[in-house]
Amino acid sequence: MISLTRSPAWEALLEHYRESCDLHMRDLFNADSERFAKFSIQLGDLLFDYSKNRITQKTVTLLMDLLRDRGVIERREAMFSGGHINVTEDRAVLHVALRQQDETPVYVDGENVIPLVRQMLKKMRDFCDHVRSGEWKGYTGQPITDIVNIGIGGSDLGPQMVAQALTSYVDGPRPHFVSNADGTQLSEILRNLDPRTTLFIVASKTFTTQETLLNAGSAKKWFLSRAGNEEFVAKHFVALSTNREGVQNFGIDPENMFEFWDWVGGRYSVWSAIGLSVALAIGMDRFEEFLAGAHEADVHFRTAQPERNIPMLMAMLGIWYNNFYGCGTQAILPYNQYLSRFPAYFQQGDMESNGKSISVDGVPVNYGTGPIIWGEPGTNGQHAFFQLLHQGTKLVPCDFIACAQPLNPMGKHHTVLISNFFAQTEALMRGRTLAEAKAELEAQGLAPNRVSALAPHKTFTGNRPSNTFLLKRLTPFNLGLLMALYEHKIFVQGTIWNINSFDQMGVELGKQLAKNIQTELAEGGRATRHDASTNGLINAYQHMSRDNS
Ligand SMILES: O=P(O)(O)OC[C@H]1O[C@H](O)[C@H](O)[C@@H](O)[C@@H]1O
């Protein structure tokens, strides 16, 4: 295949960029009263409005030419049918199989994985029913009231974000999450827990992750110091993993292990047994609604034509800004407090997937790949960093997410929230011209010299792009739908950039070096083996940590 930036589809986009980059969205809206209808899509309870982007119909056509040219359709089919598209690890990528709703076989190396998925779901259901009904009892015969998921990365961010997003559906044990190597997190959580009624869920795909094993070991120690008998561990520790041996070595009965498989990527694993803490908290019926919502997105991604395909549009708009406008970041701004961890979740989802600079063919790429993903919930962000979004020198494409129906109606709160939500995308798009700024200042009765002095500061260029996702209501189904759209966006972008979105080798080096330093710290001598900065810091640390004055 011709390299990305030499392909005719890319060159056509470059040419189109040059001729269209000065267009202002204000003018595009003024010129076409149908713009919203043309550039928005309803999918179930979700409305996706992408009309506030710096695009014309031609932009979409050219972006989708590129998508077809780069083999996205073929690669999508390869993913859904169990092909080893994770080439560096030689694995299939089948989180979609975890949420498939029918029994159509999906083969990985000749084995149909759907029966495995069904068995896993059945085991999760039985366990959830036992724990939630109180049949599953702790070592003193009391039911479980609290669950602690111990994991990190994909084994933490997914269940944590989803459990938080679905807080209003929690009618089972209270979920807690421990991830950090910093013992403060575990200590603070344990402080308020009762070992007799607490269940620990050790979540690790590999069961080798240092932080998780450290936290799980300390939790077990805490538990045993109170329960006093190793036999009771079976009532209070379960594992979610692909590594049966590792689980056994840790001292968890394989009976209490919920298995998943190497074709489930860590950051795509909340749909697997890794979602157990969510299922315990909200019940298996609702967990399955969550899976069904994701499946709806899968069907849409697989069947809608590219020009009407939400993840494909999200992805190609991202390519447009990332590779043609030179935008380095993408903000995700949920106007919903329950979704406050959504940006952090997709920070891992996107940045660990597409933060790569070597192509699948093993050569450095000569174009930008994954953007920096960041964001905070609205309206908080407005009072913090939105200044830069509106008037800064950087162009930041933004995703705005909100729900039409509040789960906690309270006076005027929702109207205020949602008005801000609409106002922000309007302001980013429209801006305020110098003439408008002057007119407003004059209307306030300011002297002409103050008007001239202030007006430039009150001017907004506008033309700042955003996507809007409006959900009817935050339900398990709709959350699954929204999340899967983002997942597929990442897949499409990775395919365009010709990188492997499903490995994460960039996290290895730091881990290796940390192990060396850990040994050095244990030995306690003077550090000499590193660069001057690292040696200096280690030596200063050793001095400072011993200094009791
Ligand atoms: O689930 P685990 O095997 O414990 O892995 C936990 C996390 O750590 C790794 O370093 C990876 O960067 C993540 O992708 C992964 O989700």
UniProtKB/TrEMBL annotation:
Protein name as it appears in the record: Glucose-6-phosphate isomerase
Species name: Desulfobaculum bizertense DSM 18034
InterPro entries for the chain: G6P_Isomerase, G6P_Isomerase_C, Phosphoglucose_isomerase_CS, SIS_dom_sf, SIS_PGI_1, SIS_PGI_2
Pathway(s) this gene product operates in, as recorded in its UniProt entry: Carbohydrate biosynthesis; gluconeogenesis; Carbohydrate degradation; glycolysis; D-glyceraldehyde 3-phosphate and glycerone phosphate from D-glucose: step 2/4
UniProt family annotation: Belongs to the GPI family.
Recorded name of the encoding gene: pgi
UniProt GO BP: gluconeogenesis; glucose 6-phosphate metabolic process; glycolytic process
GO MF terms, alphabetically ordered: carbohydrate derivative binding; glucose-6-phosphate isomerase activity; monosaccharide binding
Top-level taxon: Bacteria
Keywords, alphabetical: Cytoplasm, Gluconeogenesis, Glycolysis, Isomerase
Entry GO terms, CC: cytosol
Presence of keyword Electron transport: no
Residues the record marks as active site: 352, 383, 511
Catalytic activity annotation: alpha-D-glucose 6-phosphate = beta-D-fructose 6-phosphate
Broad class of enzyme this protein falls into: isomerase
Function: Catalyzes the reversible isomerization of glucose-6-phosphate to fructose-6-phosphate.
EC number: 5.3.1.9
Record has Signal as a keyword: no
Signal peptide start-end: none
Compartment(s): Cytoplasm
Pfam families: PGI (PF00342)
Classification via CDD domains: SIS_PGI_1, SIS_PGI_2
